[in-house]
């Protein structure tokens, strides 16, 4: 086992705890020591023979420059809360309700042409001569009484949002950090020079860990503590905007974006909603800009003989590891913090030499959810194990190159259970990595295509972590898929039109009516609907979850109701009676609690088989359509049992028994078969010992597993 | 009390039970004896000095004529279930899935031009040369593979629907009755002559009770017993259609209606959905036709010295007691069967000399819901009392002229409890009628306007009985209002534009997004929205229930979100955080169980007061908007306590204490004050004795009431 005791592990070093750093590096088999945000390593550590990572957040910690060049700061569009006119004149305060420490109005001459005033009652843009801005207020004239008006405007973002979050949440009191826009020519010159200086001044650093690039995900604070966060979206592009960006866009695309393209009646353009064509254009435009600038930074780093890894969070917007330009940046590594299996797959599948996972919990007193971890009442070893159960399933399917931790190492003192658990995980990780190095695990010849409005760009993730998006059934499905022995791809609606269903066995569409995951108006396309109809009729399978293929304008609420065998009554079926039905035994394992009810579901015809119902509402159905089958589920809530159910559904739909990839006879035990080394990996996902039988192509194998054990046979 | 022992009571006589008939007439104080459907009175009864009602269903029981003139039968548009084309040719069976005993295809030369074939996938009407009809099948050519196609067609209705219901439900075996269309010239001649003959042959009859006129409400059966009723709508007009009607419509209106105006993508035009402008035109067209023909029948009846009462159910379509033409028919009386208070108000408010209620339960072995009444296991006296608690509240507010029963009188034998209960109700009814005769009860100077897409045309009712529409919060609200001491009117959206909010204190909008009761697209009108905004801003009140003012296309889901103080997240608020709130004590009585949660409700601003919440979802809120107030309720489920809550909300919104009309100090006791006779009526709506104090303008009065008692003080 000694071969698995060292390597592929990044330890957060801590100055002042040099001895501890070296001791823990030994225990966990680290080959890399890194600094963390706000910590600097001491010479005792940097000289101890480990590779060294150093963290840089390129756009912040330049307050002197930012204050000298306030127009080099980043911006965003904002929209005032609509206000009711009670006479023919109305005064609007643009920033009312926003957090005044985060924003200031950009009323510069170059910004004002982008401002807009809307009559929101009539959904009408006012001509510019109907309003004027002076002394921080917009005065609207010739209002229609009792219509509501709002002003959309550009605002400077005067507090870097991650720093702002730490201040307001963790009561930091240091100077507010500002952030620079690399689109500003002087700022861009300054940042490159700064990076060169940094590289020259830090010869011990082998790897620069960029946290991350330029533009933060959208995080808009309000002034009222009853709603401190007004809007937060891990994957939106609003914070990339500026007059310069908008002008460059217009020049390149031949049409101008307006405030309303971003403001969208005050709703903004959340990632959970289907993107407009203009938003897609703008994202592509920003992605190219970000890649170009990132490439320049990577070249500087390389010129100093260092490597450039990028951390995939915070100011990551525009980087898009599954976008068209990511590979062109030339990063040497991608680091992803993970709670979940889908995040491992997200990292593992990106086109970059080194894939590294940052495990949770971080070595912080309190976790992301605000509960204690490394402080009184915390159980860091339990948290670590809970996340590991998610992560290992995915690592069994697709390996990464490295793992590691973050935070303050001294918090591990006295946490023997945690320290031992991490040691064990590191060994298991190296063993899995070694297995993968000898050949991929056996896989079912089954390709699952997850269909939504974003397609491959949002492979695996919806936006952010599991717990940030867990009201969407799709993230639960992605989490289940991350550990199943099938090929998974993520496609969008144009892909369907372009033949993407060739070589696909099962299409999954899972979302809420009108959202990006269900697809919204994309389902008004007869081409998409008839192509999926053909696909199933000729023998393919469809799994629809919650409100799949929901759209307005058709004769059914679900555009694929005729294939799914169910439709939803949103009121339009008034006076139309439903089919009576009787629940039947499912031909596969059903984790009942994993399937919530969706209101209004009804059968389209009497041939549909109801495999589970909640009262008179079907929640799990099966419909034969031509040579193919469709499964409808009212929802999907991840659990080990739900994952097993999904596996059995995939097997049932494709007429397989699962032996090709190895399958256990217990819903709470998973396995993987590595044929090149004839190694069987069995994972006990339960808190009890399990004796299971694994079916393989060559026969069956009995395996005993301890609670939560991953056993290599 | 003897003055209240006789009069205003219609008894169903029964041949073969002459002695019983006269005995029960004496006990219940009847002044009228009627026959029931399928029964004929014997001379012993008709000669006993009572006025005699006889029942006629004018359009049925003419099978000989119908068989001789099959083109005089009634029709409807139907639409085949869409079928997926798997090649370029598709064959459709129009009637597949429909009940073959109810319909036959009308493929006559005059009908075929009205047929349509639709590509439902592309929402496209096919040109007529792309399909042909032969041998009962439609063959569609040049189909787009995997699109779905349906044919809309005219069908003869060959079984009168009430007769069909009785056959299929109660296992009748007699000949299937057919129905004639009075638009057919020969049928119309025949029907008039038949009525003249009938009147001449039945000199004892004083009142002809028409059950009802010509066109039944829409009731479409399927062939599969798992969905015997495919569609049922008590207030839709599909069964009035025919080529002759469509041609006459086009001639008058200058545009043609097509099958799709009725079929509406297979959903038909249910009353619960907002009517199109074309449907409104068509309804008016039919209403005039029905009134004209009904007037001719009434004139025949009058010419024989008889009166004409009409029963408001079954073939009532086009009659519309709250329509423009009802009064012009010249009916002498309107009879309404009642389970509920709103039905009493519906009857009482119609413009006709005599208003008569038919009480439930009918003297049938089994009730409408299929449970025993006058058979083993039944408790007819309990049923009668339960309905009476609803009915008396409404009678206290607005009297009718007569009450009565229906069915087989012999079933009362041995039912002493029931017979005594009816006797007591009849006395109470006469007492109330007498009080009203001396002057109206005191009322609050409060006018409530119920706002929906139908307005006054659907005063009080949605369509059908309470239990047929009880998933709509509005019917619960109407039921509560039917017994409250306020003025109630029903208005639609054009009324709002035309100044209907003058002299209104409170507007109620209660429905589901997109339905006729919420209003649907009517809320896309800035005029409507700004007028209600003005109304509340200047001091009016708004009560919104479930999904009030919901519409697409605005910046909020509820067009009145800014007034209500709440909006609904249907997904568009993705990434927008909600306001945190704390529940407050309401300034009025809250019947918590009466207010269900509506999903996705969130506050629009922090000034909204949450008076009741379900978890993190507000279910009852109060918002001050300008000088006015708005109340939001997630739903409303009728109960005596819920009625009281609604009364207290109306009082709170108008700043009143309720003494003007009299008010009790107990939520389960209601009262009415008749100032002209200085009579106080106190109703105990609970199963326990209650000692209550009633506040009146002149002071307070203590009153003791027995369980369910109506006490006159």
State the separation between the terminal residues of chain A, measured CA to CA.
14 Å
Rg of chain A (CA only): 27 Å
Oligomeric state of the chains in view? homodimer
The residue-averaged pLDDT of chain A reads: 96
- Mind telling me the CATH class of the largest domain in chain A? Mainly Beta
Overall tally of structural domains of chain A = 3
Largest interface: A-B, 63 and 63 residues
Proportion of residues in helical segments of chain A: 25-40%
CATH topology of the largest domain in chain A: Immunoglobulin-like
Question: What's the architecture of the largest domain in chain A, going by CATH?
Answer: Sandwich
| Tally of helical segments of chain A | 17
Major β-sheet of chain A, in short?
8 strands, parallel, barrel
Taken as a percent bin, the fraction of beta residues of chain A is 15-25%
Number of strands of chain A: 34
Q: How are the strands ordered across the major sheet of chain A?
A: 1-2-3-13-16-17-18-19
For this structure, what is the CATH homologous superfamily of the largest domain in chain A?
A: Immunoglobulins
Report the uncertain regions of chain A.
none
């Amino acid at each position: 086992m000694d071969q698995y005791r060292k390597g592929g592990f990044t330890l957060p070093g801590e100055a002042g705890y040099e001895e501890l750093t070296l001791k823990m590096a030994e225990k966990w088999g680290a080959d890399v020591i890194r600094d963390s945000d706000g910590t600097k390593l001491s010479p005792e550590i940097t000289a101890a023979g480990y590779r060294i990572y150093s963290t840089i957040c390129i756009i912040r910690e330049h307050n002197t420059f930012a204050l000298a060049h306030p127009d080099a700061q980043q911006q965003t569009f904002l929209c005032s809360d609509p206000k009711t006119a009670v006479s023919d004149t109305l005064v609007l305060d643009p920033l009312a309700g926003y957090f005044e420490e985060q924003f200031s109005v950009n009323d510069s001459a170059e910004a004002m042409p982008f401002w807009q005033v809307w009559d929101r009652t009539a959904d009408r843009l006012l001509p510019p001569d109907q309003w004027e801005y002076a002394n921080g207020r917009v005065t609207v004239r010739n209002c229609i009484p009792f219509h509501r008006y709002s002003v959309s405007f550009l605002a400077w973002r005067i507090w870097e949002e991650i720093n702002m979050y730490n201040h307001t949440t963790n009561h930091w009191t240091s100077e507010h950090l500002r952030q620079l826009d690399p689109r500003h020519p002087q700022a861009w010159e300054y940042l490159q020079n700064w990076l060169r200086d940094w590289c020259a001044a830090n010869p011990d650093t082998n790897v620069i860990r960029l946290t991350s690039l330029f533009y933060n995900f959208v995080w808009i604070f309000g002034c009222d503590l009853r709603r401190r966060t007004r809007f937060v979206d891990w994957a939106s592009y609003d914070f990339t905007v500026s007059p310069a960006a908008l002008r460059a866009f217009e020049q390149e695309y031949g049409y101008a974006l307006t405030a309303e393209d971003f403001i969208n009646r005050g709703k903004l353009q959340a990632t959970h909603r289907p993107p407009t064509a203009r938003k897609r254009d703008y994202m592509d435009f920003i992605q190219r800009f970000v890649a170009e600038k990132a490439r320049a930074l990577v070249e500087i780093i390389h010129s100093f003989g260092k490597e450039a890894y990028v951390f995939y969070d915070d100011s990551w917007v525009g980087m898009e590891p599954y976008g068209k330009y990511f590979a062109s940046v030339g990063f040497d590594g991608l680091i992803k913090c993970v709670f979940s299996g889908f995040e491992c797959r997200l990292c593992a599948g990106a086109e970059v030499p080194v894939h590294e996972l940052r495990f949770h919990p971080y070595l912080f007193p309190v976790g992301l959810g605000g509960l204690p971890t490394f402080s009184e009442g915390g159980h860091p070893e339990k948290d670590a194990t809970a996340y590991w159960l998610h992560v290992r399933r995915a690592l069994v399917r697709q390996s990464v190159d490295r793992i590691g931790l973050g935070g303050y190492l001294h918090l591990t003192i006295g946490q023997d259970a945690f320290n031992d658990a991490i040691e064990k995980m590191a060994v298991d990780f190296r063993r899995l990595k070694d297995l993968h190095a000898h050949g991929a695990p056996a896989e079912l010849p089954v390709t699952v295509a997850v269909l939504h409005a974003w397609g491959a760009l949002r492979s695996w993730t919806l936006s952010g972590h599991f717990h940030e998006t867990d009201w969407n059934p799709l993230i639960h499905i992605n989490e289940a898929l991350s550990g199943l022995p099938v090929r998974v791809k993520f496609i969008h609606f144009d892909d369907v039109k372009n033949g993407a269903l060739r070589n696909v066995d099962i299409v999954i569409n899972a979302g809420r009516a009108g959202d990006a995951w269900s697809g919204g108006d994309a389902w008004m396309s007869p081409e998409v609907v008839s192509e999926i109809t053909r696909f199933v009729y000729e023998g393919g399978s469809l799994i629809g979850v919650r409100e799949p293929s929901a759209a307005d304008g058709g004769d059914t609420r679900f555009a694929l109701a005729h294939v799914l065998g169910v439709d939803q009554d949103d009121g339009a079926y008034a006076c139309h009676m439903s089919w009576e039905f009787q629940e039947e035994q499912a031909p596969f394992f059903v984790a009942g609690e994993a399937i919530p009810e969706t209101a209004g579901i009804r059968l389209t015809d009497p041939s549909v088989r109801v495999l589970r119902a909640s009262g008179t509402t079907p929640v799990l159905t099966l419909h034969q359509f031509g040579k193919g089958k469709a499964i409808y589920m009212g929802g999907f809530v991840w659990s080990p049992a739900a994952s097993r159910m999904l596996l059995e559904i995939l097997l049932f739909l494709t007429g397989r028994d699962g032996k090709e990839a190895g399958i256990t006879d217990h819903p709470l035990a998973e396995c993987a078969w590595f044929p090149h080394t004839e190694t069987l990996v069995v994972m006990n996902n339960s808190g009890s010992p399990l004796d299971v039988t694994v079916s393989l192509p060559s026969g069956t194998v009995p395996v005993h597993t301890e609670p939560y054990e991953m056993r290599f046979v």
